[in-house]
């Protein structure tokens, strides 16, 4: 697909994105090649593999991978297919092993990726097999940022630090605020959705607008998160921003005026003095370890790191939630999501946050069900020939006057209710798709 063809489909200057990019099989195959083998992809969190030999399995695009802490403590990632005939080497979600054996013919690999065992090697292969050449295929680059492990198949790609760019200023808040560090609690939620991966990703990268309609009923029933019971009329008045970053990342509901901290304090005072102390300690820690400006931001709402890694970080009283939208075809994703808690938080906060995880954006949660129903219905409604052959509208805020935006902070500012992050998401998508 040429750059010219792509720019006809993704006209971000006009706020128009053609629906073909959510349906076309050829475009999907190109995405797997040009995005999922070239961008940095989130693999998991370091607390999921604390000791040598710990591993978990996941996917990069549609390629299964094993993320394995080797015997020296180094985090490595390998294609999870046997070099003999392609069987999945590791069929468990997670575990600990110094070596893994393929269940088909028994080839065995070490945590350093070497082929260390071949049944009846001498008898059946003699000198015909050079074992040193048939170790597991290793992911070219694996790097952590504040405990978040990313991998990239492209040895020539920019560094993870450069890929995250200015987003790091905000990620640092998520990483540094927890008193005892973030820990992913064991287990995860997984569910399948009949939607294109970009529909889910752009929602987390840029769609504050839907909250008013889609999730309005939760406020009416008094089910909003504690401390965030904003009167309906005041919702639009909030001094929050949508921030876009180079390389397609987007962040929503970011405030610079200590409002997030004040909301947590108000909620904490209603709960327990111990929790008030905890909130103040988190704030102090940000001030000491980062800066007064980052302490005033304190948390941000939700974001998507291009292409498929999303995070929720609304409050210190809520869990940090990690999501990966695993692509499984033009109209299918597997949603994987994890709950992360502050190891240093009081037990009451941890318990409340865990309950909140289940109630909110999870498979059976109030917000999660609202969102997934929208995504499924819009996919079904655009299945037809006419429905697919239309542009979707991303024009909100296209001509927004940004003169009052606080430009001294990192990121490209957009008004809170705008589709500027989605436009940047698709602009970068088209840029990557145009590279042969
Ligand atoms: S496919 Fe793994 S040993 Fe044959
Ligand atoms: Fe939502």
Question: Topology of this structure?
Answer:
Blueprint: H1 3-9, E1 10-11, E2 16-18, H2 25-34, E3 41-45, E4 54-60, E5 63-69, E6 75-79, E7 94-96, E8 99-101, E9 108-110, E10 115-117, H3 121-125, E11 141-145, E12 148-152, H4 160-164, H5 167-176, E13 182-184, E14 189-193, H6 197-206, H7 210-214, H8 216-220, E15 240-244, E16 250-255, H9 259-271, H10 273-289, H11 292-297, E17 302-305, E18 309-312, E19 320-327, E20 333-342, H12 347-359, H13 366-381, H14 385-388, E21 391-393, E22 412-415, H15 420-433
Antiparallel strand pairs: 1-2, 2-21, 3-12, 4-5, 4-7, 5-6, 8-9, 9-10, 11-12, 13-20, 14-20, 15-16, 15-22, 16-17, 17-18, 18-19, 19-20
The protein binds FE2/S2 (inorganic) cluster and fe (ii) ion.
Q: Mind explaining what this structure looks like?
A:
This protein is of the alpha+beta class. It has two domains: 41-144, Rieske Iron-sulfur Protein (3-layer Sandwich), CATH 2.102.10; 165-433, Naphthalene 1,2-dioxygenase Alpha Subunit, Chain A, domain 1, CATH 3.90.380.10. It contains 15 helices and 22 strands. Strands 13, 14, 15, 16, 17, 18, 19, 20 and 22 form a nine-stranded antiparallel β-sheet that branches. A four-stranded antiparallel β-sheet has the order 6-5-4-7, with no helix packed on it. It has a three-stranded antiparallel β-sheet with strand order 1-2-21. Strand 1 (10-11) and strand 2 form a beta hairpin. Helix 6 (197-206) packs across helix 15 (420-433). The structure holds FE2/S2 (inorganic) cluster and fe (ii) ion. Fe (ii) ion (FE2) is lined by residues 210, 214-215, 367, 371. Residues 210, 214-215, 367, 371 line the site of fe (ii) ion (FE2).
């Amino acid at each position: 697909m040429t750059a010219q063809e792509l720019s006809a489909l993704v006209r971000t200057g006009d706020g128009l994105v053609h629906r073909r990019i959510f349906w076309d099989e050829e475009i999907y195959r190109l995405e797997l090649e040009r995005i999922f083998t070239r961008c940095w992809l989130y693999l998991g969190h370091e607390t999921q593999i604390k000791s040598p030999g710990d591993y978990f399995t996941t996917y990069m695009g549609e390629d299964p991978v094993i993320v394995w802490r080797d015997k020296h403590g180094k985090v490595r990632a390998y294609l999870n297919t046997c070099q003999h005939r392609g069987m999945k080497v590791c069929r468990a979600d997670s575990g600990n092993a110094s070596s893994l054996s393929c269940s088909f013919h028994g080839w065995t690999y070490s945590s350093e990726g070497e082929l260390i065992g071949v049944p009846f090697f001498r008898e059946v292969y003699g000198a015909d097999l050079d074992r040193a050449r048939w170790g597991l295929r290793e992911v070219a680059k694996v790097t952590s940022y504040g405990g978040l492990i990313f991998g990239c198949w492209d040895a020539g790609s920019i560094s993870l630090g450069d890929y995250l760019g200015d987003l790091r200023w905000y990620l640092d808040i998520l990483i540094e605020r927890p008193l005892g560090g973030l820990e992913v609690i064991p287990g995860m939620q997984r569910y399948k959705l009949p939607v294109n991966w970009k529909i889910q990703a752009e929602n987390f990268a840029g769609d504050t607008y839907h909250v008013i309609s889609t999730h309005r009923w939760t406020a009416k029933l008094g089910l909003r998160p504690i401390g965030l019971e904003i009167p309906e009329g005041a919702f639009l008045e909030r001094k929050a921003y949508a921030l876009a970053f180079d390389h397609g990342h987007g962040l929503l509901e970011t405030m610079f005026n200590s409002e997030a901290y004040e909301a947590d304090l108000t909620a904490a005072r209603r709960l327990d003095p111990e929790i008030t102390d905890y909130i103040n300690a988190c704030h102090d820690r940000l001030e000491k370890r980062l800066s007064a400006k980052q302490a005033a931001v304190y948390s941000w709402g939700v974001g998507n790191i291009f292409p498929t890694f999303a995070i929720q970080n609304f409050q210190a009283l809520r869990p940090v939630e990690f999501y990966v939208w695993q692509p499984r075809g033009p109209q299918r994703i597997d949603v994987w999501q994890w709950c992360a808690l502050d190891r240093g938080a009081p037990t009451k906060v941890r318990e409340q946050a865990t309950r909140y995880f289940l109630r909110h954006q999870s498979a059976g949660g109030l917000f999660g069900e609202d969102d997934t129903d929208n995504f499924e219905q819009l996919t079904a409604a655009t299945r037809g020939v006419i429905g697919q052959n239309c542009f979707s509208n991303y024009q909100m805020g296209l001509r927004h006057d940004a003169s009052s935006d606080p430009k001294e902070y990192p990121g490209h500012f957009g008004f809170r209710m705008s589709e500027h992050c989605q436009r940047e998401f698709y602009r970068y998508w088209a840029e990557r798709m145009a590279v042969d």
